[in-house]
Description:
By secondary structure, the protein is mainly α. Helices cover 65% and strands 0% of the residues.
Amino acid sequence: xxxxxxxxxxxxxxxxxxxxxxxxxxxxxxxxxxxxxxxxxxxxxxxxxxxxxxxxxxxxxxxxxxxxxxxx
Length: 72
């Protein structure tokens, strides 16, 4: 999978977590969903995404395929 797919998974999970916490704990948790949405919007314009930095440091999204052997 590409790193963009993992970012979408993380963002969607954070929104679902926010809604669940808002329902179970406090409506203030909806601010988490707002922050996730604002981050997604700003990343389109700036190219900076904190989730991408974290995922890359964890090694997520790197190609798992072996490179072709030269001369083969």
